Amino acid sequence: MIELKDVTFHYGLDDGGYDSETGVKNMNLSVKAGQCVVLCGRSGCGKSTIMRLVNGLAPNFYAGRLTGEVSVGGKSPANMLRDERTRLMGVVFQDPRSQFFMETVRDELAFSAENLGMAPDEIRTRIDKQANQLGISHLLNDSLHKLSSGQKQRVAIAAASVLTPPLLLLDEPTANLDFPSTQNLIDILGKLKQNGTTLLISEHRLTPFLPVVDLFVCMENGKIARTWTKDEFCQLSQDDVRVYGLRHPDMTLPESAGNRELPETSELTVEGRGLSYFYKKKNDGITDINISLPKGSVTALTGDNGTGKTTLCKVLCGLLRERKGTVVRGGSTLSASKRRTASYLVMQDADYQLYADSVGNEIVLGKSLNEELREKAYEAMDAFGLRELRDRHPASLSGGEKQRVTMAAAYCSDAELIVLDEPTSGLDGDGVLKVAAWVKKLAEAGKTVVIITHDQILSKLACDQVVELRRTQDAETAFAEAGIRTVEAANR
Predict the structure, then answer these.
(1) Mean pLDDT over all residues of the chain?
(2) Parallel, antiparallel, or unpaired: how do β-strands 215-220 and 284-293 relate?
(3) pTM of this structure
(4) Lower Cβ count inside 10 Å, N or C end of the chain?
(5) Angle, helices 179-194/149-161, rounded to nearest 10 degrees
């Protein structure tokens, strides 16, 4: 189905030259029809380039110089007509927002089938089938812009597979999915594979794919470093995979990260008591939430997609005003305006909150610069590995570097509550360890940290407690409710 023979690809530069440090080099890869191959390795190792070569975006959209032969179904994907490519392969990008064209979920699922002139009844049947399989039937009439990241991911997968193409390409498909959705995705991929669909997947979270994978292909510096069958991969230890920057369930932080003792006084604890917030248009929200956040602690906020994790954090930060309940500290009620002043939300997409012309200026943005702040800014740059980037424009940084800038800014802020939204989404094993260490630095600085995450490894490495939101349905109300459970993390 897929054949790469001595393929080298260098991305084009603005000056007409080529970047010798990016792309892939002398690649030879063969994927048989019906196989599932998972590409893995550190961020920037060449996984996404392979996906772009296979789906024809490189060099058609991503300009560059290609040598060697890329063949999909016996033809060059770069030379295929659009209709031919659409029937042959479904593609799910790492950021699902970049591939949406329509306003509602139903219209997005119908988009490719309508463009191919499929009969309306057949389109409706396919939409209902895929929506049911991926658990998004209740979202069909919703706006794509109002969905959570995990819900958008499921919609993108449903849209890519609605035509049941013989080849499915997925770039980080589990990055924003909760555990049940990930398991459901694997079940669906297993059924597709049984029906002969070829699967090429780029991923950092590898163990969930063991039920369907035939071969793990580990990339390093644009080349294949190792390949493992499923059985071989299961025998690998943490030390075996860490050299390639891969995730492993037994990952641990270095001893230098140390343990932390939390303050014993309750006066420093932020508490949410009976918090409720309802979205009238979405007929959704949170109900009667109780949560306790000790000063200097790290809390993982987990739960299925759409259970209200982001909503709860926006209420705690004062970005949303609670409809019921209170937020208190040391017995005193905190108004929404006070909470906004004392909070800092690090968004999943850092581009939305970078404004200054340099990294150094971004870290101290909005503050009166004095010697004390200057010293703290350099301390933050050292803590988050940004000293050499201090004069760079934030827009020129990679996604991981931008995220580090926002965390350094939070470190230097006067905020007492720091909220991180999916900070390890799309990160390799090295990145997870670094985020865990950085989170501990925020806590050591006296910040109270909440992490919205589905990453169980991060929860184990960095968090003092895990709070899980669960969706329940009260027959007397149309609103969704959230139950809550708190458990101790595996280590502090």
Answers:
(1) 84
(2) unpaired
(3) 0.78
(4) C
(5) 10
